[in-house]
């Protein structure tokens, strides 16, 4: 697209807004990009593009993977611009490009790394046309936001440009099926000792063969629709991984690629984070970094502290764990992590969506897609549900088989920690992306109490 008067006006005004924001000591907002797109609707299409653009999308894990990729690039001395401090929608992408350009819009860096919201990819992908696009997975998310996974597959298929090289999860048939004619590589975790035949989860969104509709047979199903399947009727099967984590140890994984196995450090051995690390390795390798350089850099990084934070206070572990509000899959993963964590556990649940909660929390249907059943384990000695919908969460806990004497519930989130019984060895605080301050406050009061 040509650069016209409205583009330059939009660029000029947004640049001024960056200066103004800097004067009042603020940075990393979406305001400059918002201004630019307001003044020039197809601003992103007219903005000069860095030589290489990497996109990272998917339902769960995209922020973790993007942060990891950026940390490795930093440690390897590769300059780039990114939308880490802004949002993952079009205004965040525009803000990052504006901040990293001169007054004519020419990029100051040759590489851009963008986390891209899958739901609104129509506003970003066709304009920025990534060279490499990673999709972590496609799951059910909040009903209000993205309805059901096939809807998201459809949005991505429509708006990912032809020819974009894709890096996809081979163990997720929904993700693996994206844009079948585009060039692609797959990442996969080979069968592990803990992988069983059946899934314990309520939500399982891939049951029949995407090609012929026959019932799939599963070699193993890890959780939800993640696993490896084949169709007895037509021969369709999960694709083979080009990057396969073959062996998982406590703090490292062996990844087979191009006929060789390379070790990479793992900050966290739980499978969701193994997928995140593996996805980052595949993406960075496709970008052109050497396996040894990626491995050395990963040894110096960890899983971002905003996602998972573990602290010890007087012999008791306190763990902040992200569980995105209204996202049944993210919550089910968190509940399973609590069950599988060693020792006696207590959990404080802040599950209300922050923006909804400001007015009213309307939708409780997703509680019945989330596997609260994991919490009905003998090792989970106390569960405290706090927030506007505490009665609904309490009901769901009872229906999941949690014993009433182990479940507490209250409206006032600030008081939740006061109800903690002393017997748990570990306290999990589940929070939404937007309630990190609340979670931190409660964490402080938990650590002071013990
Ligand atoms: Zn089939």
Under the CATH scheme, the architecture of the largest domain is 3-Layer(aba) Sandwich
Q: Which class of the largest domain in CATH terms?
A: Alpha Beta
The number of helical segments is 15
The total strand number stands at 17
The percent range for strand residues is 15-25%
Give the biggest sheet. 9 strands, mixed
Please, could you describe this protein's structure?
This protein is of the alpha/beta class. It folds into two domains: 5-186 and 268-299, UDP-N-acetylmuramoyl-L-alanine:D-glutamate ligase (3-Layer(aba) Sandwich), CATH 3.40.1190.10; 308-449, Mur ligase, C-terminal domain (Protein-Tyrosine Phosphatase, Chain A). 32% of the residues lie in helices and 21% in strands. The chain has helices at residues 5-23, 31-39, 43-46, 62-75, 90-99, 125-128, 143-146, 149-159, 173-176, 271-287, 291-299, 328-340, 354-357, 390-399, 436-449; strands spanning 52-57, 81-82, 111-115, 132-135, 165-169, 184-189, 217-223, 226-230, 243-248, 252-257, 260-265, 308-313, 316-322, 345-349, 380-386, 407-410, 426-431. The protein has a nine-stranded mixed sheet with strand order 2-3-1-4-5-6-9-10-11, with helices on both faces. The mean pLDDT is 91. Bound molecules: zinc ion (ZN). Zinc ion binds next to loops.
């Amino acid at each position: 697209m040509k650069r016209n008067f409205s583009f330059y006006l939009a660029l000029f005004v947004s640049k001024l807004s960056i200066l103004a924001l800097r004067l009042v000591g603020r940075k990393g907002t979406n305001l400059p990009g918002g201004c630019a797109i307001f003044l020039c609707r197809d601003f992103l299409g007219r903005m000069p593009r860095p030589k290489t653009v990497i996109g990272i999308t998917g339902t769960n894990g995209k922020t973790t993977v993007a942060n990891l990729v950026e940390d490795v690039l930093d440690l390897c001395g590769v300059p780039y611009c990114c939308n880490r401090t802004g949002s993952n929608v079009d205004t965040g992408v525009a803000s990052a490009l504006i901040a990293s350009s001169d007054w004519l819009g020419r990029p100051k860096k040759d590489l851009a790394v963008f986390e891209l919201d899958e739901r609104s990819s129509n506003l970003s992908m066709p304009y920025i046309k990534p060279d490499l696009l990673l999709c972590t997975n496609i799951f059910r998310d909040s009903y209000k936001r993205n309805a059901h996974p096939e809807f998201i597959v459809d949005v991505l298929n429509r708006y990912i440009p032809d020819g974009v090289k894709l890096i996809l999860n081979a163990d997720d048939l929904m993700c693996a099926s994206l844009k079948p004619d585009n060039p692609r590589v797959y990442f996969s975790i080979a069968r592990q000792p803990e992988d069983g035949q059946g899934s314990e989860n309520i939500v399982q969104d891939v049951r029949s063969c995407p090609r012929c509709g026959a019932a799939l047979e599963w070699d193993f199903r890890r959780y939800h629709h993640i696993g490896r399947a084949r169709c007895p009727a037509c021969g369709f099967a999960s694709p083979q991984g080009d990057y396969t984590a073959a062996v998982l140890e406590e703090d490292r994984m062996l990844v087979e690629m191009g006929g060789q196995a390379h070790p990479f450090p793992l900050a966290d051995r739980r499978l969701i984070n193994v997928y995140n690390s593996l996805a980052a390795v595949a993406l960075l390798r496709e970008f052109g970094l050497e396996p040894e350089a990626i491995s050395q850099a990963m040894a110096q990084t960890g899983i971002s502290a905003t996602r998972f934070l573990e602290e010890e206070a007087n012999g008791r572990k306190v763990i902040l764990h992200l569980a995105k509000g209204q996202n049944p899959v993210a919550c089910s993963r968190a509940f399973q992590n609590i069950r599988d964590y060693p020792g006696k556990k207590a959990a404080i649940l802040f599950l209300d969506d922050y923006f909804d909660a400001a007015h009213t929390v309307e939708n409780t249907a997703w509680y019945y897609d989330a596997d609260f059943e994991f919490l009905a384990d003998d090792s989970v000695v106390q569960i405290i549900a706090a927030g506007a919908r505490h009665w609904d969460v309490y009901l769901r806990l009872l229906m999941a088989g949690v014993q009433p004497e182990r479940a507490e519930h209250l409206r006032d989130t600030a008081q939740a920690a006061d109800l903690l019984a002393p017997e748990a060895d570990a306290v999990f605080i589940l929070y939404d992306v937007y309630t990190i301050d609340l979670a931190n406050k409660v964490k402080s009061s938990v650590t002071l109490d013990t």
